[in-house]
Amino acid sequence: GEALEVNREVNCVTDFIHGCEDQLQKLKKQKEKGLLYGIPISIKDHIDCKGHISSGGMVKFLDQVKEEDSVIVHVLKHQGGIPFVKTNIPQTMINYDCSNLIFGQTLNPLNHQKSPGGSSGGEGALIAGGGSILGIGSDMGGSIRLPSSFCGLCGLKPTGNRIRYIPASVLFSHPTVEAAGSMLGPMARDVDSLALCMKALLCQEMFQLDPTVPPIPFNEQVRLRGAPMSSSAHQQS
């Protein structure tokens, strides 16, 4: 409901993920409760979800319905999280604004005359507007950090290869982009939510599904030892 309301105001959602209600019912029957149990999670448009498109804001991808969840979606569900919406991006995602010819312009919920930043702009707008409490964006040259800054949120671009994005139909199968390293990472209203999300994602399930991710759990102690947002704490955790 909240997400719909925010979307009406700032145009940040590209798709509602069907089956999230069924997933919640399934979770209730499970004995094991994951770290993200029952938390609705928004995800950036280009992250693959079974039965949905990953457009990247480009018409050429509109007919390519994904047959599998990406690794991160699988792990979020494994930890009890409920991916419920996909959020807007700029066309090709290499842009610091957030608009494309398919879904239009996303506005900054704090000031509709301003941009929410990009490329994870839909995430920034939805979370800042109160329509989501935790989201997954991606960042190569500022795509989590800029919308977090523009929308007054917390965001984390993890160390290279910490949480990798391997698309089924490689949207950016370009050596330069691979070398620059586009990382997936959490966005939320506070640092504790980012830490919880990282702790949940860096689990055995992740390491088994993506053997290129170093099997190192999130180190809560390193985070707590330094200043909350110190770069050294984040580099090591």
From TrEMBL:
* Source species, domain of life: Eukaryota
What Gene Ontology terms for biological process does this UniProt record contain? fatty acid catabolic process
Keywords from UniProt, A to Z, are: Hydrolase
Give every Amidase domain span: 5-215
Q: Which GO terms describe its molecular function?
A: amidase activity; fatty acid amide hydrolase activity
A Pfam family per the record? Amidase
Q: Which InterPro entries match?
A: Amidase_CS, Amidase_dom, AS_sf, Endocannabinoid_amidase
The family line of this record is: Belongs to the amidase family.
Record protein name field: VDHAP protein
Give the organism the record lists. Answer: Zosterops hypoxanthus
List the gene name. Answer: Vdhap
